[in-house]
Structure prediction request, 353 residues.
Amino acid sequence: MDRNDLSKIQQSIGFNFKNLDLLQQAFVRRSYSKEHGGENNEVLEFIGDKVLDFVVVKILSEEFGSLASEWDDFNLNEDFNEFVSEYQENKLTEIKKRLVKKDTLANCIYNLGLAEYLIMGQGDRKNNVQESPSVMEDLFEAILGAEAIDSNYDISRIQDSVVLMLNPKAIIFEDKINYIQEVQDWNLRRTGDLPEREFKENYGYYTMGWGLLNPHVPHINAKHTCYVTVDGVKKAVGYGATKVMAHEEASKAIYDYLEANNMLYTIKDEIDNPSLNMAINQLETLSRRGYFSIPEYKAKKFYDNNGNPFWNVECRIDEVEYYFYAESSSKKQAKKEAAYEMLKYVLDNFEEA
Prediction:
């Protein structure tokens, strides 16, 4: 891992390290340290696990709760200044579990392309453990552990990184457009980099910058300003009571611009060349990018009249009404052909899917 790699990782996770050795340590598996000596990421993973729990709870409390004094109709002489939450404990616990579960964290690492930087021993490399959801989950937590040590547990900085990596609103509000994620994905596809972000705190006055997307007089409680820049689009500005709200407003302005100018990518743009040999991987790529759930394959072995074995493999996706199957003397070939038929269908009929 060189300085260029470390720079790219820092950009992806939204956190600049004072001690880059800590960031590198987050990527070192025990298999490597056993072969070459030095420290690995296991203790950082332990720390990051606890830090993640705290940060997610903080995010949920800010999203769904507030002190009564923050309400417009609060009466200091009549009302108690209590903490009020939109959801009760059981609902918050359910949401928290979705945010911190293995598959969620693994998908974040996969989408950011961070598993490729893992530093592993020969056994891990032979077994391709970087593709394991458990290993990617461990990496997510180890990165947060490194951030905690490097920042002396600066929860505000760690939270900003978690919001960028995890994109919690996309998980909390699954049925709504997540403008931050949509704009990030668009710019990553176009340039390979995340959008540029700049945050400022407001001190009772605002600069109305001409030439920006979404310039307007913000609400009096908008304490934060966020500027977002993506390739080929004007810089956008957003305001909010929190950094996330400001970021979301600026991202929505960019998303609306992209939509109005027919610049949004569609599912057909995701796969440049549908291929029989790559169909299984291409379907999984679309799944990882959130178009539909992970494809499932069911294989059955049969014999023809001469006693020769052949395979029937079905490919199913929860959101797709139809399933596709193929038969071959090779199980692997049958799976490829079934996946290819499904791939062609979803690329042509995603609206129905």
